[in-house]
Design goal:
With about 200 residues, this protein is of the alpha/beta class. It has 2 domains: about 1-135, Rossmann fold, CATH 3.40.50; about 145-195, Orthogonal Bundle (Arc Repressor Mutant, subunit A). Helix content is about 50%, strand content about 15%. It has 10 helices and 6 strands; from the N terminus they run βαβαβαβαβαβααααα. It has helices spanning about 10-20, 35-45, 60-70, 90-95, 110-120, 125-135, 145-150, 160-165, 170-185, 190-195, and strands at about 1-5, 25-35, 50-55, 75-80, 100-105, 125. It has a 6-stranded parallel beta sheet with strand order 2-1-3-4-5-6, sandwiched between helices. Strand 1, helix 1 and strand 2 (about 25-35) form a beta-alpha-beta unit.
């Protein structure tokens, strides 16, 4: 039996996936969550073979949730679902150790096959998403610039960003100014939006 935790903030989609996977004799959904933080906690509690994560979830996205999960439960394999595959997202997902990447338009029967493959140790990336990733621009931003933009998207102030990253406010402003220049943006919020649209954060 392949044990799975499912996390998606859209209740209708999540419950449909859970109900349909329950019809597969070798798949068992042991828990479900509507946000990334709960997904992390549930995986720690149940230690499933697979966690199936939506890309866009509050308060952290599926990639960040997967990063935390794989750090604390390295034997669990992560599969990411997305409705909109932004350029760069697949690269981030692969770098985070995610072993499956599927669009939400995937049929449940195909999803079940993917989950079985991933549980058996194989990697699966939807071909169309892979093609998009190959055409994506490389990210010109440093890790610290990305951290600052990621927090900017949460509407954190410069002071709050500095406190979270354990940096001086002047240093944070320098990172944000550099990110604005590299993305040709007029504000830190615009730079964060560019980075999000490109899938860099």
């Amino acid at each position: 039996m392949i044990r799975i935790v499912v996390a998606d903030d859209e209740e209708m989609i999540r419950t449909a996936i859970v109900s349909l996977l329950a019809m597969e004799g070798d798949l068992e959904v042991v828990a479900q969550a509507d946000n990334g933080s709960d997904a992390v906690s549930l995986v720690r509690r149940h230690v499933p073979e697979i966690v199936l994560l939506d890309l866009e979830m509050p308060p952290t996205d599926g990639i960040e949730a997967a990063t935390q999960i794989l750090r604390s439960a390295p034997d669990t394999r992560a599969v990411l679902m997305t409705r909109h595959a932004r350029p760069g997202v697949l690269r981030r997902a692969m770098a985070a150790g995610i072993t499956g990447f599927v669009p939400k338009s995937t049929s449940v029967s195909r999803l079940a096959e993917v989950l079985r493959d991933v549980a058996a140790g194989r990697r699966y990336v939807d071909p169309e998403l892979a093609a998009q990733a190959l055409n994506a621009d490389a990210c010109p931003l440093t890790d610290r610039e990305l951290d600052a933009l990621r927090l900017t998207r949460t509407h954190a102030s410069v002071q709050q960003i500095a406190e979270t990253l354990h940096l001086a406010e002047g240093t944070v402003r320098n990172y944000l100014s550099s990110a604005m220049a590299k993305t040709q943006s007029e504000s830190r919020h615009a730079a964060a939006e560019v980075a999000w649209q490109q899938g860099w954060i």
